[in-house]
Amino acid sequence: MARRPRKTCLWPTVLTEAILLQSLLVFGAHAADTVTSAGSAANSAQLTDSSDSVSRLGGTDLYLEVTLNGAQGGLAHFGYLDGELWASIATLHELGFALPSSTPDPVRLNSLNGVQANYDASRQAVAISAPLSMLKLGTTVLNAPENSRPHATASPGILLNYDIFGTEGQQGSSLSGFTELRAFNSSGVFSSTALSQAIHINGAGWQNSSVRLDTSWSTSFPDSLLTLRLGDTLTDALSWSRSTRIAGVQLGTNFTLQPYLITAPLPAFFGSATLPSNVQLFINGMQQYSGQVPAGPFQLNTIPNISGAGNAQVVLTDALGRATTLNFSLYNEQQLLKQGLSDWSAEFGVVRENYGLTSFSYGHDPVGSGTWRYGVSDHLTVEAHAEGTSKLINGGAGAALLLGSAGGVVSASLAQSAYAGHSGSQYGLGYSWRNDRFNFSVNGIHTRGTYTDVATLYGSPPPSVSGQVVAGYSTEHLGSFGVSYVQLRYPQQDATRFATAYWSKSIGRSLSLSLSFNQNIGNAASRSMFLVATIALEHDITVSSSVQRNGNSTGFVVNASQSPPSEGGFSWRAALRQGNDQNGGQGEVDYLGRYGQLQAGVSSIGQTRYGYAGATGALVLMGGGVFATRQISTGFAVISTDGIPHVPVKLENNLIGTTDSQGLLLVSPLNAYQNNQLSIDPMDLPANVRIDRVKALATPTDRAGTLVRFGITPIRAASIILHDDSGQPLPLGSRVTIQGQADNGSMTGFDGTVYLDTLGEHNTLIVHTPTGVCRASFDYHNVSETIPTLGPLLCRKDISP
């Protein structure tokens, strides 16, 4: 690779050497492509030298493999003179150097301040070490979040959720039922809820009532993060505005359509590595990320598993084992939107009145409402809200600002209204800060004049003063302490003010204590105190005891309960009360099964005694089957094994159930708009079937189901033994086809055996042997799930015409 050129004929030698090296490089790069990624292969490209300044040195021309700060730099042209390496400015620029314009061309590498060049003649390589201030390297981005968008589907179906509850007591009986009827397909979801009641009072007979609650149709557009809803809905609201129940149309942002989308600002940690290094991120002492970075600047994005203020450390360990620690302060707050992200909603309709009392009661005046939030930067989120109806206009704006990297969040809002000649305003201010031990927040809203919103016209006005202060501190050994103050005042009413103090402490793994004190500031005699002790026992049994002091009376309560296992089973709950004229107890038994949940119990507290029972569950009609199951509030799937019964199905590698006699299984709950992996074991299937796949992804839409098939096809298969006219097995390798089928058939094996899986009820085999063609006919009748062996069958030779 290195040689001494002749002075009088330098350029032919250099040209010949460059051509040979280029050929070797192309071959080497092609070989490297088979074992390296595209990014690594890019580093193998030759760096061209557009300047002949090195050649004019009169020394030795070298083409060396370059390593710059531990990273591969490819093949580059250097000059070797008087024991020193020289390089042209063009070569150094391509390697990543950013040199002043006054730098001589060519330049001796070791003359550059802070640069060290170690030339290895045996390997024809050079290792260059340079300060980052002299280099212009790209920024490496680590742990960049991906917003995966799986394609969600919904199959046609109908679902009925139900919740039935009945009582029987001294005064009479009652029976109530809440139902939700849901119909869905790929176009959207129709939903209607209702509440029905029947009350029997001794001596007065039965009184029945039924009320429709909400009816709506909705469809979503995941790529645009939008949901359109027609019918009964709630208007969107901010922390300083109020929602209103309307019937109409709503269109707005729905972040749940992309569950992997990160809406809050994402902390980024910046640093530089002189050599290829391992980078580790610790947040509050817990490792959150570990990876590799090349030499140069890097940016590490992460989702911190904290809320509030925290400390982050980035530890860089280079190839020489030297560790460098970078310290950062951070603050994570969910009320902020990341830069450039928008969240909005618009509604138009009429206000729903007497909700829960009458089925169809609406206002006459149309109502419009709009809400908008926008992340101006990762530290500032602005928001606005406006609403209006006949004679009313209301609008306002607000903002949330992160003070520095860990200074907490301050928020403010201002709204103005005008109604029937009267005007009013509302302003709010708040601040919050917290870390893993301390939390503090203060916020307040105050109205002036006649401040009116749409909710005021159909209900109560907003409070004229609303304020809250909360502070808490957690210690390692003494537990958690906290205090709060709440003030609330409505127009034409006296203010309500309460102060609260609490303490809680966990002792070991099973015992926890809590103590709280509540004082009405306006009434010294109105105070209460609670002391609760909770013990967690084996088998999911929990026992708690509490003492409550209200004014001058004291009450005692003892509760014991056992939680139902997630896979189903029995659970129970029992309670005893003493004091405050509430002496008595309660007992209940529950059963959680595959088809729903049942409960039954008795209660005797004070002068009230009654027994009760209830049932919750759902009925689903989908995929050609009817299913009874637990209540379904989110997405689900119906699994089809194409009529094959009793096939075990796994969800995320956990057994979830087996298909019924129709080869169907309902799986719930599933995460909507997320990939849920379902699988079956082919060893659980009969031998006479063909399966397209053993794993499938179920991605349902919200509140809807999707049909999942594994592509299981029954086949007519058999191992057939064929003999010739003399009773001997047909020769090995004879080609066998089925008459009337266009496939290539199969080959006979030992003893004249051939396997065929496309048989019909009546079959004629055409066999091509070394001595000619023969035929065999037979009927196929198989009632078992195994693959039968037929024969031996006589294969008769075709008679020549």
Share of helix among residues?
under 10%
- C-alpha Rg, in Å? 39 Å
Structure classification: mainly beta
CATH architect. name of the domain at 617-714: Sandwich
Shape verdict: extended
The separation of the N and C termini measures 78 Å
CATH class of the domain at 617-714: Mainly Beta
Oligomer: single chain
Count of extended strands: 55
Strand fraction band?
over 45%
- CATH superfamily (homologous) name of the domain at 617-714: Outer membrane usher protein FimD, plug domain
> Can you summarize the main beta sheet?
24 strands, antiparallel, barrel
Number of helices: 4
Name the average pLDDT: 85
- In the predicted model, the low-confidence regions spanning at least 5 consecutive residues are 1-50
Domain PapC-like C-terminal: 722-780
Protein name: Fimbrial biogenesis outer membrane usher protein
GO cellular component, one term: cell outer membrane
InterPro entries: Fimb_usher, FimD_plug_dom, PapC-like_C, PapC-like_C_sf
Task: Walk me through this protein's architecture.
With 801 residues, the chain is mainly beta. Among the domains are: 58-137, Ubiquitin-like (UB roll); 268-332, Immunoglobulin-like, CATH 2.60.40; 617-714, Sandwich (Immunoglobulin-like), CATH 2.60.40; 718-797, Immunoglobulin-like (Sandwich), CATH 2.60.40. It is 5% helix and 56% strand. The chain has four helices and 55 strands. The strands form nine sheets. It has a 24-stranded antiparallel β-barrel. Keywords: Signal. InterPro entries: Fimb_usher, FimD_plug_dom, PapC-like_C, PapC-like_C_sf. GO terms for molecular function: fimbrial usher porin activity. It comes from Paraburkholderia ribeironis. Residues 722-780 form the PapC-like C-terminal domain.
